Amino acid sequence: MTTPKTLNRLSLLTTMLATILTCGHVFTSCSNNDDDPVSPDPISDRTYQLDQKITNRRECHALKMIASDVLNLKFRQVVFEYTSVGPDLKTPVRLTGVISMNTDVYNKLVTPRGLMLYNEFTCAKHGERTSQNEIDDIGLYMNKYQDIIMVSADLYGWTLTEDKPQAYCCPEITGVETIDAWDAAMQILKDEGYSISGLPTFNVGYSSGGFSALAVQRYCDEKRPDLHWDLTSGGAAPFDLYSVYISNVTSPTSGYACSFPLVVVAYKETYHMNFEYKDVFVEPLASNIQKWILSKDYGTWDINKLIAGGDGALAKDCPVNLILTPDALNPQSAVGEKLAKKLRENSLCGEGQTWQPSTKTKYYIMHSAGDKYMDWHVGEEMANYLKGHGCTVETEFGDWGNHVDYGLFQHIGKTMLLMEDYMEGTEDVKLHIQMDIIDKIKDYIDDKIEELSDISL
User: Fold this and answer.
1) How far is CA 449 from the centre of its chain?
2) Residue among 346, 382, 350, 349 at smallest CA distance from 366
3) CB neighbours of 4 closer than 8 A, spacing ≥ 6?
C-alpha cells in the first residue's frame, strides 16, 4: 500500500510530526448544534438523496516503511459512495469518501472520543486520495490514544470521476461535496452502531486542505447553520488566492512551480474561463497541459521538474518566467484581469468578501515564516479577517522551515494536542502522545529533513 511517493510523504510526515508535535497544538472541530452530528440536514436545500453505500472495508498500516519500529499505526477504513453535485452545483454525481478509525474503535472495543473532518491537501496523480494510496497523511491521527473517527471526501475529479478535471481550490464546490460526504458518513456510522452522538468534532486541513477547511467553515456558516464547528484549523493555506497570485507575479522564483498552473487549469476547465493556455503559460508547459496535468499521470513534483526542464534543483526554486507569460505576470493585462477577478471571487478573505464567520467557532491559523511554496502573510491575512469579524483566533507564524519541512508536522502535532482540550481523559492522553509519538518520532527523524524536498502538498 506504500508507494515511492508515500515513502517520501512518510519521511516527511514523520519528520514534521516530530517537530510539529513538539511545538504545540492546532486543530479544528465541529459539532452539531443539538449535539448530534448524526442528525439529518434539517435546513439543507439539498434536492437529491445521498444514497450512501459502503463499497470497501480495508486494513491499513501507515508509515510502516519508515517508522514501524517507533509507531504501530494500524487502522481500518470504510470506503463509501454517495451522491453529491458536480462543478455546476446542479448535476447529481456519485463520489466517494472514506471513514478511518483505529482497530479498537472499529471493532467497538473502545468508544470513539471525537469526530474529525480531514481535508486532504494537493493531489495531481491517479490514486492519491485518502481512500486510495495516501494513507500516510492521516496515519498519525490514527494513533491508539486518541480514538477518533475521521471522515475524508475524495471530491470531484478523483476515484469515480477521475476522468474529469479536479475542481481544485473551488470553494463553493468543495464545501457542498465535503459536507455531503460528512452527512453520508454520519449516517453510515449511525447505521453501523457506533456511539457518536454528542462527540466533539474537528475540521482540519493543511496546505490546500487548509483552504478546504475554511471553505467548509464558510459553507456551513452560510448554507448549513445547523452544523457548528467548535474549532477550525488551517495550516499554510492559500486562503486569499488573489494575494497568492500577486505574490507569484511579483516574485522572481517559485518554490512550488505547479501550484498556480493547477489552479488555473482547474478554473479554466471548471468555470469555462475564456482564455487559451498559451495566453497564461510559456512553453513547454502551454502545450503540455493535457499530458502533464489533465491526464493525472504525474505527481506534483514530477510536474515541477517537467516545468523546470527536468532540472530537479531548479524545480525547487523555479523562475516564474519559466511558468507564466508576460501577460499572465501582469494583473492589468486582459488575461491578468480575468485571472485576478476570479481569484478574488474565490478567495476566503480579502477585498470584496462578505462572509461573516461564526464567532462561536475557535480558529487556529498557522504558517511557517520559512515557507517557500507561498508567503506566510496569507495566513496572517486570514487571521486578520477572522479577528476583524469578532472571531477568537489563535495564530502561530514561527519559522518551522519550508512548507514540507517541520511546518506540516507542526500543524499535525498541535492539532492532536489541541483536540484533547475537547475530549475526555485529556492530560493522560496528552502525556502519552508527547512521549510515545512526538518524542519518539523526533528522535527517529531528526536527520531526515533532507528527504522532504519532493513531497506533494
Assistant:
1) 22
2) 382
3) none
Residue 398 phi, psi dihedral angles, 5° rounding: -70, 175
> For the chain, what is the radius of gyration of the CA atoms?
20
pLDDT in tens, the chain (457 residues): 444 444 344 344 444 343 333 333 333 333 334 445 544 444 567 999 999 999 999 999 887 655 545 565 789 999 999 999 999 999 999 999 999 999 999 999 999 999 999 999 999 999 999 999 888 778 888 888 889 999 999 999 999 999 999 999 999 999 999 999 999 999 999 999 999 999 998 999 999 999 999 999 999 999 999 998 888 999 999 999 999 999 988 999 999 999 999 999 999 999 999 999 999 999 999 999 999 999 999 999 999 999 999 999 999 999 999 999 999 999 999 999 999 999 999 999 999 999 999 999 999 999 999 899 998 999 999 999 999 999 999 999 988 888 876 677 778 888 888 888 888 877 888 888 887 777 766 665 555 544 544 555 5
- DSSP secondary-structure letter at 410? H
Q: What does DSSP assign to residue 24?
A: -
pTM of this structure: 0.88
Helix (H, G, I), strand (E, B) or coil at 116: strand
